[in-house]
């Protein structure tokens, strides 16, 4: 019996460490522990376990388990802001959003520096579709807690969902400042700039994303993941730029050697699709046919293979 | 002079009733002090949101400046963020109490009048007292009862330079340096027991750092604690200049990215 407890505890701690959202498994293993009252023998680990179990139980709508966990936690830590957050999440599950928002508002009045409550409040606002209020709250939150990268990305996504692409790029620029090493944010910036019809900026940012990802690879390597998508972006921008003259809201200059760039982008994307086995043959056909007619510069591309 | 014939013979009673008690008392007092300090520590104060915002405003511009020579964001974005921050620093938007009215001279608040600052200082003083009072009592106890006692003979020879360190309280110029007086034994313990405290109480105990914090005055210790009043008006003004410098250094990574890529893939 104790061996199974040990393994259950071990895998639960593993889930916690890796932030795995395996709610059903957590609940099954956790209920075993909760019922046998093993939590009391755990020492200080018990509280982290109870929090984990509560969240998992809310996830799969076993509210009685969650209530039991929260009750134990609240008894141990009466004033804890972390338990407040848990209580709030529990309320979100069953109560109307207005009640929950009011609860959060009261908590914030008592302690205006509780970042987690802010985030819960914003998530409720987003869930109920009050994007305008959510954007306001989120900007207010980020004004204080500037270094929250995910917050900036979330703000950018909110703006994008309202077609406010210029504002979205501004929010993303803060995320870029905070995490300059993350190519996904660069890529997202580029795509948002493309949507905002700032093509010169977009092509630059696509290239920056490639530059960030491929900095340490050789020039012969096959592009993968982020860099394929970014090469596609470069290709798309080059095509748009060759078709019409584009103005840039950010006054970004057009890249030099646009023809060469177009050629290179085509070559890179085709390399990516030529490398695979036969399983993506149809996809390859489509890519080849999409790439083909763009070649208006006259110089036939030398296809790799 | 230090031939075996004139050597001292120590009463074993001194070992049992002086040497060991002093050591034991010092260890126990160290452990006790650790727990008293734990009791005295007040939970960290919660800052209001405005105060956090004020503290972190500087970080914003530091983040912007950190990458300015190789910035990931395009020039127009950089300039708008930079100028907005500079304007906000100038106007004092981030100050806890809002922008200052008129041109009142910005004097740093007197820490004695600010209750929050007083709390921080009092906490520092309390721990200092817990550090100092027991040490003074023990030293008084040793001086009163065991003044001039020779407690132990070190098993290795030492040069004359150690005489003042090892024979404090005994004014005999001719005695061998290897004999240790009671007061010197106290100091040896005081500085030497840190390792033992670490073994008993763990690494971040408050007994071990007694000998280090003894040197600092309570007021100096209070000064570098977080939550002390800092003159943010001045800090913001300085940060504004830094921003201007950083803008001079600014260059965008995207400026010649196409050349880099084309060159890497052999197109140029």
From TrEMBL, chain A:
Q: Does the keyword Repeat apply?
A: yes
Q: Where's the EMC2 TPR-like domain?
A: 102-193
State the membrane topology.
Peripheral membrane protein
Q: Name one GO cellular component term.
A: EMC complex
Where is it located?
Answer: Endoplasmic reticulum membrane
Member of which family? Belongs to the EMC2 family.
Question: Per its UniProt record, what PANTHER family does this chain match?
Answer: TETRATRICOPEPTIDE REPEAT PROTEIN (PTHR12760)
User: How is this protein named in the record?
Assistant: ER membrane protein complex subunit 2
Q: Which species is the source of this protein?
A: Lentinula edodes
Q: What is the lineage of its organism?
A: Eukaryota, Fungi, Dikarya, Basidiomycota, Agaricomycotina
TrEMBL record, chain B:
Q: Among the record's GO biological process terms, what is one?
A: protein folding in endoplasmic reticulum
Q: Where in the cell is it found?
A: Membrane
Q: Which domain of life is it from?
A: Eukaryota
| Main location as per UniProt | membrane
Question: Mind telling me which GO cellular component terms the entry cites?
Answer: EMC complex
Which keywords fit this entry according to its UniProt record? Membrane, Transmembrane, Transmembrane helix
TM annotation in the entry: 17-40, 130-152, 183-201
SMART domains under this entry?
DUF106
Q: Give the protein family.
A: Belongs to the EMC3 family.
What is this protein's function? Answer: The EMC seems to be required for efficient folding of proteins in the endoplasmic reticulum (ER).
Its name, as the record gives it, is: ER membrane protein complex subunit 3
Query: Which species does the entry assign this protein to?
Result: Lentinula edodes
Organism classification, top ranks? Eukaryota, Fungi, Dikarya, Basidiomycota, Agaricomycotina
